[in-house]
């Protein structure tokens, strides 16, 4: 999907509908952020319709779990604790899941624990995107 071929009702479509999730992420995360690495946050209303997309680029690769959580928490503060958010980790290549993807998901779950509703985390690369499901930590196995 591109801005030029958005359906007329695009603003009414929920980003949580798997039919559209990858398309919304593809629109929001530009290629240069996929090359450099970034974190995208799609702030949505109570019906999961995108209201504000944000992309933070050039994040260091060696963030701690606390730093990841603070980063996500700072970004989702814009929701005022209501609505929902969808997050995506952008990188150059590889749709295989990595340990840091699980760390980003856990950080997002913690940051959204009191609201907004966490819709999920995706990895988006030059090759496409995929959802990051819950990861088990070593202590949970």
Write the layout of secondary structure elements.
Elements: H1 21-28, H2 31-36, E1 38-44, E2 50-57, H3 65-76, E3 84-90, H4 99-111, E4 117-125, E5 128-132
Parallel strand pairs: 3-4
Antiparallel strand pairs: 1-2, 1-3, 4-5
Helix pairs in contact: 3-4
Q: Can you describe what's shown?
A:
There is one protein chain. The chain has helices spanning 21-28, 31-36, 65-76, 99-111, and strands at 38-44, 50-57, 84-90, 117-125, 128-132. The chain has 141 residues and is α+β, with helices and mostly antiparallel strands. It has one domain: 3-Layer(aba) Sandwich (Cytidine Deaminase, domain 2). Strands 2-1-3-4-5 form a five-stranded mixed β-sheet, with helices on both faces. Helix 3 (65-76) packs across helix 4. The longest helix has 13 residues, at 99-111.
